[in-house]
Specification:
The protein has 163 residues and is mostly helical. It contains seven helices and two strands; from the N terminus they run αββαααααα. It has a two-stranded antiparallel sheet with strand order 1-2. The longest helix is centred in the N-terminal third of the chain and has 39 residues, at 3-41. The N and C termini lie close together (6 Å).
């Protein structure tokens, strides 16, 4: 998988990943507020540690999730900027389709309606645009990204089958 394809896939997945992390944070908050009082009522001693230890550990986990959310939002911003730079290398129609699909997150059906194209034709335009972007050298795409952007598959992406 080339870097352009990786950035496009990440850009498309970003909102879902941020939403999943946000839900995880909300669930952890619910747990923290639900178990706090029962631990105190148990005399501050629990098999897993004191109430204070549990609160401190929970706060660290919550801060970690918030950090992950912020980091993912920053990477998404970098991905959007990179995709917007990549589409400038495409013919206007292909670039617009890629922009609407990957950045605006519109469905192909909605894009076809908006652009007054048949669904089948729009699929070909998108496929042609993707094929052109896949041919971009990784070095060019890398120059469009911040220096600290992860350019290899993460463990989660490998496990999810993106490679």
């Amino acid at each position: 998988m080339g870097l352009a394809t990786l950035v496009l896939a990440r850009c498309l997945a970003a909102d879902g990943e941020v939403e999943a992390l946000t839900i995880q944070h909300e669930q952890e908050m619910d747990v923290a507020t639900s178990v706090g009082q029962p631990l105190q009522d148990a005399g501050d001693r629990h098999a897993a540690g004191t109430h204070s230890e549990k609160v401190a550990n929970g706060a660290c986990e919550l801060a970690g999730i918030l950090g992950e959310i912020e980091a993912r939002k920053q990477r998404r911003s970098a991905e959007i900027l990179c995709v917007s730079r990549m589409v400038k290398r495409l013919p206007v129609t292909q670039g617009r389709v890629i922009h609407l699909y990957y950045i605006k997150r519109l469905t192909l059906t909605a894009i076809a309606r908006r652009m007054n194209f048949s669904y089948g034709y729009l699929r070909r335009v998108k496929a042609d645009g993707l094929a052109a972007l896949e041919k971009l050298p990784d070095e060019e795409v890398e120059a469009m990204l911040p220096p600290d952007y992860p350019k290899t598959l993460t463990e989660r992406e490998v496990a999810g089958g993106r490679g």
